[in-house]
Design goal:
Helix 7 (451-469) packs antiparallel against helix 8. The strands form eight sheets. Strands 1-2-3-6-9-12-15-18-21-24-27-30 form a twelve-stranded mixed beta sheet. Strands 4-7-10-13-16-19-22-25-28-29 form a ten-stranded mixed beta sheet, with helices on one face. Strands 31, 32, 33, 34, 35, 36 and 42 form a seven-stranded antiparallel beta sheet that branches. It is built from ten helices and 46 strands. The protein has 728 residues and is an alpha/beta fold. Strand 2 (41-45), helix 1 (56-60) and strand 3 form a beta-alpha-beta unit. The protein has five domains: 3-354, 3 Solenoid (Pectate Lyase C-like), CATH 2.160.20; 384-409, no CATH class; 428-498, Up-down Bundle (Substrate Binding Domain Of Dnak, Chain:A, Domain 2); 509-672, Trefoil (Acidic Fibroblast Growth Factor, subunit A) (Trefoil); 679-727, no CATH class. The chain is globular and about 90 Å long. Bound molecules: calcium ion (3 copies). Residues 273, 275, 277, 279-281, 341-342 line the site of one calcium ion.
Length: 728
């Protein structure tokens, strides 16, 4: 999958303009003025991979980016960390379906500056180092995290040391896991606002307040210890205003704990409900534990604050805390516990107690014709141009770029609230793969699907989504299975429709045809462009006649990225023009010789699905094919196949290869297509009769106008000779 992005015209870096421009409407507190990736390159996350092109890790790994999501689901980063650079907006609310969860590893924005992160779930889990946290923000500056969910941290859920100008709002911090099961730890963080956050099922540190902190309108639920003082030699300052502390099944009355005189605590409007009776009926907190009681707030700030009563904040949190555009099953569980008001909830050892991370439904990416990150429908409704990249325009005013207006419009509960009925998991999984197919088909730049076929599957996807939304207990398993069958048939139909299309190819451009390199003993998955590129190119034959196909090893991606020039890629003999042809053929013509290769088109939309095959050395010839994986159809070949028509592994050009190890890539180059004017045909012997065969071996009445053919010649002595010719 290609890594798609739009150009950055005027990336607004931190502090250069509009110092008082809010990160987004509703931003409050010390992090409210972060500008994130405003004006920066729009980068699409196109897959759920842990790394590599199209991944979230690659999107946020470099500074100055505005990140949107074309897919929804779980990004499993087990074994790795995901690092966020500076001047980044992560617009998780753009993810279709049930949104994005990062699972299995740490998210780190330490020492980074100016980040807006919205609608992202981060669930570390048991594979995270036991002394580490799910999210680490050490020495981070100008950071606002909104409608996110952070859980399953072994040490704490969040580690935030010596950070500055930070806001967390409308976030869930829950279910810290073994060994500590704690919420968040800090030391030395200044100018920090936490408001409208839900802290649930953490034993302690909700958070630890060894810092300067504004803490208003939060709910802390089911804790052994609630908020913790800094209890350090250095002074700390805490404004704790209008929060609700609610005991759960593991509960205690230690809503304030570990405070000493160095903690300067301003406490006002806070309530504690410790009776676990299913009703919100707490009493006003009037004690300060052992902290130094302040009679006025410590902080006299000018940034926006929307302070409600503790009871109002409780309701607001129930309604919208977390990545609540579509809440995932884990956040739904936490909200269900909270609203039980003391009846439900527990500390957990790790996610195994919950059945693991589970599955998130993907959704249909809205049509975005110019791929600037803004949906056509929204662009049209707002007077923007859905065929021109105007993401970073400021047409809509308000100090925000156009794409900021777009993502801000998505920052609310979706109409498509869905949770997965256990009986429909298989249907959901099919739906997810169908969505991946359709989403991928839209963005792939190589051989594509007919748009009509994509639309047909989209209709079936919409039907399945509607079916799932309307699923009730009365719906039978038979009906669910029938829906899945319909969708599966639609997926198959689209896969079969891959032939006869050249969407994405320009006949004005040339292409390199190369495969990825492998090594001896390699497995299918080992074929990587970083190892080597192996080119197919044509030599001009004797007397300017038919060319000969040659297979040569070129430089690896690593070499090319290091600045080396790949001589083979630059040779006209290695450059090919692609043209659509009738009757399901794709014509591939070599730039040097002008000769065509002809393909029986079962080309996949995804180049990795095309595999070459080498035949054994039969009749002194080396056969060479490309097969389409799904159906085993021959795409083109040189030479003759062996008896089984497939060929087996051979040593060829000092390289061991077989049909499973190489992947073919058609890569557009900058060269224009200029063909030689005169093409001569190969001819020898006295011909009595000539029959022409396509590469599939189908006899043809007349010689087609172009292609590579097997020529079957019957000579005067009655013998038959079969050989390849290339002709125009
Ligand atoms: Ca109560
Ligand atoms: Ca658009
Ligand atoms: Ca546009």
């Amino acid at each position: 999958m290609k890594y798609l992005y739009t150009l950055c015209f005027a990336c607004v870096l931190s502090g250069t303009v509009q110092a008082q421009q809010l990160a987004f409407p509703g931003a409050e507190g010390y992090g409210a003025y972060a500008s994130g990736g405003r004006g920066c390159q729009v980068v699409h996350v196109t897959n759920l991979n842990a790394s590599g092109p199209g991944s979230l890790a690659e999107a946020v790994g470099q500074s100055n980016r505005f990140v949107v999501f074309d897919v929804g689901g779980v990004i499993d980063i087990t074994g790795t960390n995901l690092t966020i650079a500076s001047n980044i907006t992560i617009a998780g609310q753009t993810a279709p379906g049930e949104g994005i969860t990062i699972y299995g590893g740490r998210v780190i924005a330490s020492k980074s500056k100016n980040i807006i992160m919205r609608y992202i779930r981060m669930r570390g889990g048991k594979s995270v180092n036991q002394s580490k946290c799910t999210l680490t923000l050490d020495e981070c500056q100008n950071f606002i995290m909104d409608h996110c969910s952070v859980s399953w941290g072994p040490w704490d859920n969040v580690h935030i040391k010596d950070a500055n100008n930070i806001t967390w709002q409308y976030c869930i911090n829950s279910e810290g896991i073994e060994p500590q099961r704690f919420g968040s730890i800090t030391d030395g963080t200044r100018n920090w606002t936490i408001h409208h956050c839900l802290w649930a099922d953490n034993k302690s540190r909700n958070p630890k307040m060894k810092c300067y902190l504004q803490y208003y309108n939060n709910v802390v639920y089911n804790f052994a210890m609630g908020i913790i003082g800094g209890h350090s030699a250095a002074d700390n300052y805490q404004d704790v205003v209008n929060n609700y502390f609610i005991a759960g099944p593991n509960g205690s009355a230690k809503y304030f704990d570990d405070w000493t005189a160095t903690d300067h605590l301003y406490s006002s409007g806070n309530y504690f409900d410790g009776n676990c009776d299913g009703v919100l009926n707490g009493t006003l907190i009037t004690d300060h534990h052992n902290a130094t009681a302040m009679s006025r707030p410590n902080f006299n700030t000018t940034h926006p604050m929307n302070v409600e009563t503790a009871a109002e904040a409780y309701q607001n949190i129930v309604d919208q805390v977390g990545a609540s555009r579509v809440r995932d099953p884990h956040d739904l569980r936490i909200i269900e516990q909270l609203t039980s008001l003391g009846k439900k909830g527990s500390f957990i050892a790790n996610e195994d107690e919950l059945g693991g991370i589970g599955f998130l439904a993907n959704g249909l990416r809205p049509t975005d014709s110019d791929n600037d990150g803004m949906a056509d429908e929204w662009e049209t409704a707002n007077g923007l141009n859905p065929t021109v990249n105007d993401a970073n325009g400021t047409t809509l005013g308000g100090g925000y770029t156009n794409i900021e207006h777009y993502v801000n419009s998505l920052a609310q509960k979706s109409d498509e609230q869905s949770t997965i009925d256990p009986r429909a998991r298989s249907l959901e999984a099919t739906l997810s793969s169908a969505l991946n197919l359709v989403n991928g088909a839209q963005v792939d730049v190589t051989l594509g699907f007919p748009s009509q076929s994509i639309d047909q599957l989209k209709v079936l996807i919409a039907d399945a989504q509607k079916f799932l939304q309307n699923l009730t207990e009365q719906t039978s398993q038979k009906e669910i299975d029938a829906q899945e069958t319909i969708l599966n048939n639609g997926v198959k139909a689209l896969n079969n429709a891959r032939i006869y299309t050249l969407e994405g190819f320009s006949t004005e451009k040339a292409y390199n045809i190369y495969s990825y390199g492998t090594h001896s003993g390699a497995k299918d998955a080992d074929a990587k462009p970083s190892i080597q590129r192996r080119y197919l190119y044509a030599l001009e034959g004797q007397n300017g006649k038919a060319g000969q196909l040659v297979y040569r090893i070129g430089l690896s991606d690593n070499d090319i990225n290091a600045g080396k020039k790949d001589a083979i890629a630059a040779m006209p003999a290695a450059l090919w023009g692609l043209e659509a042809a009738g009757n399901g053929y794709v014509k591939v013509r070599n730039l040097l010789t002008g000769n065509y290769m002809q393909m029986e088109t079962s080309l996949s939309a995804n180049p990795i699905a095309i595999h070459p095959t080498y035949a054994k050395q039969d009749n002194g010839k080396m056969a060479f094919y490309m097969d389409a994986t799904e159906e085993g159809k021959r795409l083109f070949n040189v030479g003759a196949p062996d008896a089984d028509g497939k060929g087996g592994p051979v040593d060829f050009f000092a390289m061991h290869a077989d049909r499973t190890r190489l992947r073919w890539v058609f890569e557009q180059t900058e060269a224009d297509v200029v063909y030689p004017t005169a093409i001569q045909f190969l001819s020898d012997g006295v011909l009595r009769s000539v029959r022409f065969f396509t590469l599939q071996g189908v006899e043809m009445e007349n010689r087609p106008s172009a292609g590579i053919y097997l020529e079957c010649t019957t000579k005067s002595d009655g013998t038959t000779q079969v050989r390849k010719i290339m002709a125009q």
